[in-house]
Amino acid sequence: MKNTRKEPKDTNEIATPRTTGDAPAEFQRFGSVVRLPIGLDQKACEASVDALNQVLADTITLRDLYKKHHWQVSGATFLQLHELYDKHYAAQQELVDQIAERIQLLGGVSVAMAQDVAERTQIERPPMGREPVPNQISRLLTAHEQLLRTCHESAGDAGKNGDDGTNDLLVSDVIRTNEFQVWFLSQHLVPTPVTEPEEAMAGAERR
Ligand SMILES: [Fe+2]
After folding, report:
1. pLDDT tens digits along 48-99
2. 69 C-alpha to center of ligand 1: Å?
3. CA 147/CA 142 separation, integer angstroms
4. How many whole angstroms separate alpha carbon 84 and alpha carbon 73?
5. Closest alpha carbon to 91 in 179, 196, 3
6. What's the 70 CA to ligand 1 centre distance in angstroms?
7. What predicted TM-score, i.e. pTM, was given to this entire model?
8. How far is the CA of 71 from the centre of ligand 1 (A)?
9. Domains delineated in the chain
10. CB neighbours (10 Å) of residue 177?
11. How far is the CA of 90 from the centre of ligand 1 (A)?
């Protein structure tokens, strides 16, 4: 039988990694939503993808704000806050992955890179320098509240559109995690005296 197999002109051509190629630069445009068989209307998927990309940009920003504070914290509560900030960072990182993957499974494209996140986030840009602890905590609480307001609105919309999965992710994971972190942080701003309890009690009685 005649061998019809086409031999490459240069065998090394096959072994050479294709660092650039003929494939288009993108095969799905950001902002587009392709159809997957998940029992949801196209309109519902588009609305959820749009809302989740906002939540994702804000969650990535909040996550990075925690790492900034983890590195730059100072003062008597250094170790406690250094560790707490990193714990919250890790929980936000979990959420980032869950939100991004839900966007993809809805047929969308998740926002990913820092430049794109910076353009979309609603969280205020912090200064590059170090801030004192009360400012760090206030800044985090403001960011959490901004994010929570967006999540409540988006969860309600997803529920109305029949997108139960997005509603569940926002309510059970994103909202619950953020509320919990707000509680932990906000208790640091209650002016409970660490020393001189008698003086503090006397002050409380005078009030
Ligand atoms: Fe660290």
Report:
1. 999 999 999 999 999 999 999 999 999 999 999 999 999 999 999 999 999 9
2. 10
3. 9
4. 11
5. 179
6. 7
7. 0.86
8. 7
9. 49-187 (1.20.1260.10)
10. 18
11. 11
